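As a representative case, we now present a protein record of this kind.
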Amino acid sequence: MALCCAISNEVPEHPVVSPSSGAIFEKRIIEKYVQENGVDPISGKELSIDDLIEIKTPPIVKPKPPSATSIPATLKLLQDEWDAVMLYSFTQRQQLQTARQELSHALYQHDAACRVIARLNKEVTAAREALATLKPQAGITTVPQPKLQEKATVLTQERKKRGRTVPEELTTQEQLRSFRTLASLIGLHSASIPGILALDVHKSDTSKVLTGGNDKNATVFNKDTEQVVAILKGHTKKVTKVIYHPDEDLVLTGDYVLSTSEDQHWAFSDIRTGRLLTKVTDNSNVPLTTAQLHPDGLIFGTGTGDSQVKIWDLKEQSNVANFTGHSGAITTISFSENGYYLATAADDACVKLWDLRKLRNFKTLQLDEGYQIKDLCFDQSGTYLGVAGSDVRIYLCKQWQELKVFNDHTATATGVRFGKHARFIASTSMDRTLKLYGLE
């Protein structure tokens, strides 16, 4: 018995059955009826499209209708089939053309991506080659490196010549023990952010005194005229160390200064113009607490907050050696004029003496427990060592005998320097004063 649609009485192509009446329908016809009426056409009960149950039947080839037996009807059927074939062929050609366009576009994108990648690889290779070429030339570009090396040779010869004999003009131990306070100067730095943290005296012109303060500035002061020569600005935090370059013939004049800061940078500046020439970051990301130039002028040392002393090449701006041994943050370092010794101090209340040739500690001065060491300084002959901290102390080198103690400051002393031939001693303090000591 063939399935017949209860509405059209024809064999359905997609038969479905209604659970309400059990009747069989052509799917497209019953869906239209349900959408319009919402009930089963046989039983009249409520019915939805989701309630219809699809009947799976094998595909049936529809027999030719009796009308197709005539020649005109056969021609009509053939025309319909031809139209269908042409329509299908047209659709396939459209889809093929679209696929070709999409493929062509994708190929163009792929080619462009390959060209971009090739260009970027070429640029990266060129950049790496340029970087490799620039590395040997890294340094202070405004200073010819051959001139630095030439002058360093002269400085080394002069240092060695000075080191052979003690100058006759050098202040004797007895005279140094008789030193008294000659002057007490105030007002070099901001009163709202009090405290002088760093001190240096120009070796060839001892009238020039350089100080660094809590106010983030470095100040150049002439002690003879008692006038401020320059105020250097550039750091974002307090200036913990200031140093004159030892060579007054370097580039234009000797008016260049090296400074470090807790912003993890060391800087090289022109004190006449106040212009910052070079600023370098310590890659250890640890605050720099102090710095000192070697007498030869080509290397310098910095102290860090993690108990390390680092030696730097000024031309290459690179770290070349490290010293460890202290148990606290480094507070100060100082190179002896003999070029071989380095004195360092930290929050562990001791002064360590290092041999730069053997990279070892050969002497340790243990001070009183709780003594705060803020600065160290050798005189130009390497005969005396000054220590600034809870007070200002002067030691005789080699014997390491204490010669003099100054207690004039009302707060912690932060810096100590010797004048030429140790004719005077300068010290700074958190009490905002610069004091000068000598013979009356």
In short: The mean pLDDT is 81. The helical segments are 27-37, 71-134, 145-164, 173-177. The domain at 145-438 is CATH 2.130.10.10 (Methylamine Dehydrogenase; Chain H).
